[in-house]
Amino acid sequence: MTYRGRFAPSPTGPLHAGSLVAALASWLDARAHGGQWLVRIEDVDGPRCPPGMDALILGQLERLSLRPDEAPVWQSRRGEFYQAALDRLIAGGQAYGCACTRAEIAAAAGPRAKHGELVYPGTCREGTRGRPVRAWRLRVQGRIGWQDRRLSAQSQDLEAEVGDFVLKRADGLWAYQLAVVVDDAEQGITDVVRGEDLAENTPRQIALQRALGLPTPRYLHTPLVMAADGHKLSKQNGAAALDLGDPVARLREAAVRLGLHLHTSDPLAETVAQWQAATIPAFSNSSRISP
User: Fold this and answer.
1) How far is CA 102 from CA 43, 105, 118, in A?
2) pLDDT in tens, 235-244
3) What positions carry the motif 'KMSKS' region (predicted)?
């Protein structure tokens, strides 16, 4: 099976030090396996994506010589694929319409679970009682487990900790979970390499893959870059855009975050291409991140 990986940024802001770690890890993993590396622009939440931010991100990747092997794709152009998947789930009784407002869900769910997630209590599982459908949800049950390539054995009681989750939102936008599962399958992704903060999404995505009869990729969740206040570095907490005046320096910094210290001061690695050629074997030999 040919390895196919991907980097899938949301164009809500430019790449920063944290997103570069995920981008570099996914690129190195693909190259270490002699595979293909793709870029997908996850702009399904259009209102949060400033115009031109996708082009800026693609320009940043080009400056770092992180070039995809196929033309990038945009989620905002793929609604017909998501609708077809939702139609299949509805026809099979695996998805249903929900009339609940967020306030109603909060009142019925009680105390919030970890990370402030509202556990949907299944109010509309047997119908909306004549109320108009606002969103569409997937029926879930039981515990989902997987073997993460870095985090080892992981599991989540999806029904107790998340509940039936949204596939299409009340505002008409497609939910991230459905879009990413459909896209990974359609693009033939075999390995998902992304930040550790997204690990909690994996059980939902595996549940969707099973419901749609799609293959489950291997998962590798990379270490997070933390801000000075101890929280994850992100666009939401003001993470600075990458300063790409010295792209090799930025790549070296990202590699250190991945536990690759081998070439951080190699005087021969003066260009991006030289640095990449030296670092791919180091990534491949790293016991922390190998399959």
Assistant:
1) 23, 5, 9
2) 665 578 899 9
3) 232-236
